């Protein structure tokens, strides 16, 4: 279970949809929903600038690879 | 081969599915740089829409607008209250993330659709003029205000298009 709540309010502020590393899949908001299974290529990560991760004091990146924030 | 009403129902389902399948294929053809192939898929999709509507009308599936709204409210409610929660639970059980999020995205939009139809049924001709938007990635639907990112799939605002 992630420490980040999967709410519409949080998802609406998530930057994953703008991310150059995001694979072509419906899943997103990886810090809350867990890692992608689509084979992410590291092309940059926006998590450090994301208002959601800032709210939760998260310091990690590539949650799409590493899995949900815990 | 069943009776004609049963056949109309089957044909309606098949033509409806073909319409959506061809539109998906058209998008893919556009993405792959084949605009003339995409056009042909859109042509066939439009034709299948006409067939589907003809079959639906023939079997008495188009009623008054109030009746159509009532039926649509029931359908949307069934989808988000019963069908998709069961599908999501099954996908979770199977560990199928792709299916889970495909169902989740649809489920969130169906809630909005039920509310939108219910408001329409309540006001009918007195409805105020609203602007509606649909996320082209996940189908989430918005009225008047669009967030910076889709609240379901996080796609940027540019992917959320107004429906005329």
The proportion of strand residues of chain A reads under 5%
CATH classification, class level of the largest domain in chain B:
Mainly Alpha
Q: Could you spell the SSE succession of chain A in H and E letters?
A: HHHH
CATH homologous superfamily classification of the largest domain in chain B: Ferritin, core subunit, four-helix bundle
Q: How many H/I helices of chain A? A: 4
Strand content of chain B: 5-15%
Report the average pLDDT across residues of chain B: 96
Helix segment count of chain B?
4
Arrangement of strands in the largest sheet of chain B: 2-1-3
What share of the residues of chain A lie within helices? 10-25%
Q: Any idea what the shape of chain A is? A: globular
Alpha-beta content class of chain B: mainly alpha
Main beta sheet of chain A: strand number and arrangement? none
Query: Helicity level of chain B, as a percent range?
Result: 55-70%
Q: What's the structural blueprint in terms of helices and strands?
A:
The complex is a heterodimer of chains A (70) and B (164).
Chain A: H1 8-11, H2 30-33, H3 51-55, H4 63-66
Chain B: H1 4-31, H2 35-58, H3 65-94, H4 97-123, E1 132-135, E2 141-143, E3 160-163
Features of this protein?
heterodimer; A: mainly alpha; 24% helix; globular; B: 164 residues; mainly alpha; Ferritin; Rubrerythrin, domain 2; 3 domains; 4 helices; 3 strands; 66% helix
Q: Any overview of this molecule?
A:
The complex is a heterodimer of chains A (70) and B (164). With 70 residues, chain A is an all-alpha fold. Chain A has one domain. Chain A has helices at residues 8-11, 30-33, 51-55, 63-66. The radius of gyration of chain A is 11 Å and the shape is globular. The mean pLDDT of chain A is 94. Chain B has 164 residues and is mostly helical. Chain B is 66% helix and 7% strand. In chain B, strand 1 and strand 2 form a beta hairpin. Chain B is globular, with a radius of gyration of 18 Å.
